[in-house]
Automatic annotation (TrEMBL):
InterPro entries from the UniProt entry: AB_hydrolase_fold (IPR029058), Dienelactn_hydro (IPR002925), FrsA_esterase (IPR050261)
Recorded superkingdom: Bacteria
SUPFAM superfamilies reported in the protein's UniProt record: alpha/beta-Hydrolases
Domain Dienelactone hydrolase stretches: 73-191
Pfam families according to UniProt: DLH
Identification of the protein by name: Prolyl oligopeptidase family serine peptidase
Similarity section: Belongs to the AB hydrolase superfamily.
Amino acid sequence: MFLGPLPERCDLDVECLERVDCGRYVREKVRYSVGPGERVSAYVCVPHDLQGPAPAVFCHHQHASRFDLGKSEVVGLAGDPDQAYAHELAERGFVTIAPDAVGFEERNWSPDGAGNVTWFELSTRLVRGRTLLASCLHDVSVALDHLISRPEVDARRIGFIGHSYGGRMAFWAPAHDPRIVASVSNCGCIPYRHSYTHDTGIQAEFVLPGFAEQHDLEDVVALFDRTALLISAGTTDKWSRGAEELFVGVQRLLGDRAELAMYDAGHVFTPVMRERAYRFLGERLSGRGPA
């Protein structure tokens, strides 16, 4: 109802543009269709010497107003090394996929390749009764379609991880696509009710007309099928505002499928935070459950 219509599906028509041996894994750059006339590039990291189909993780990049960055940051080719979780997870035996979100990196059509085009992408959808979030969620599902088509991937063990913008998507993606059975939100859990301030506001991708009148993130989590969720948050991070309050509602819905990790930190994804996130994904995608 609030998302509006989803984009039209089409054949993936996948092409591999390059393959690079990164030591413990091979990094492929692939391109596939997310809709008629629209193709997206993504990095797929496949560990060497897999002993059968492996768990896979969608790695969503951050925002940081760096529209020139996207997939390249999470595989460690550019940007902040603390954001290279697709690379680190591949080194730990996970297949990972990292596409560009709408308006970022190769999907940024501004003259210098770094301008903020997302508000244009939002407004031109809204006037036609569509939303940018519907497109973003559709893109996640298409990326998962590619993942589960690969022989290296166990389709029953699909995870999601993201920081900041990606941390927000870690709530919405499993609600939209039940193939995601474990999701990590790092420093991106701020509910709508805590976002009506000048220092936060509402990100373009999450503008859903009328949604927050009676709903919030707890209602999104209520749509989870079997997904386990780790909320990882910093005590001084404005994008983690309301984390503990939110967790109370989330735990009521998910029970022991919900976990909270609070850190005396700001808007960061430190090695300690990442190790906790990787352990959560390892436990939840192995079928063993929490430690």
